[in-house]
Amino acid sequence: MNENKFSLIVTVINAGFVDLVMDAAKEAGAGGGTVVSGRGTGNEEIEKLFGIVIQPEKEVVLIIALKEIVDDVLKAIYEQAGLKTSGHGIAFAVPLDDAVGIGKATTDVKAAVKIQKKLATASEKQEE
Fold first, then answer.
1. Within 10 Å of residue 111's Cβ, how many Cβ atoms?
2. Phi and psi (nearest 5°) for 44?
3. What are phi and psi of 82, to 5 degrees?
4. What is the mean pLDDT of residues 94-121?
5. Stretch 56-70: mean pLDDT, rounded?
6. What is the per-residue burial (b if ≥16 Cβ within 10 Å, else e) of 79-97?
7. What is the enclosing helix (H) or strand (E) of 20?
8. Res. 103: pLDDT tops 80
9. Residue 27 pLDDT > 50, yes or no?
10. pTM here?
11. DSSP 51-112
12. Gap between the Cα atoms of 13 and 15, Å rounded
């Protein structure tokens, strides 16, 4: 098993805005995700309190990511697809105790993240 190396990032977003979530997550180092259709149950009191219209048709994006990049992924999702965007998304992460069947894909993502960080560091040094 994976000894809690992973977290599940869950994003609930208005239908039709999944690309905002996935583009942001991938830019932050996450791999792919799974999309599930859903339906919200917002009411008028919540809409008035937050000053938003709650669209009942939702999509739920599930992304398994290495624990070390979860904060970056959540921040990217919030900036690109959060409540202040047209997607009105919310996102949270929960630690995964065990996960199977993702070792090779995650190893590839981890290697890509390391390369991205090295390139970013090299680019910063060149700018100085």
1. 10
2. -60, -35
3. -75, -170
4. 67
5. 92
6. ebbbeeeebbbebebeebe
7. helix 18-27
8. no
9. yes
10. 0.72
11. T----SEEEEEEEEEEGGGHHHHHHHHHHHHSTTSTT--EEEEEEES---S-HHHHHHHHHH
12. 6
Bridging pattern class, strands 6-14 and 34-39: unpaired
User: Could you tell me which of 21, 20, 4, 83 has the C-alpha nearest to residue 47?
Assistant: 83
Mean pLDDT for the chain?
82
For residue 55, which of 13, 22, 11 has the smallest C-alpha distance?
13
Vertex 12: Cα angle to 72 and 53 (nearest 5): 120
Q: What are the structural domains of the chain?
A: 6-127 (3.30.70.120)
Position of tokens 């999702």?
Answer: 77
Number of residues in the chain: 128
User: Angle at CA 66, nearest 5°, toward 61 and 70?
Assistant: 60
Structure confidence at residue 34 as a pLDDT band (50, 70, 90) = very high
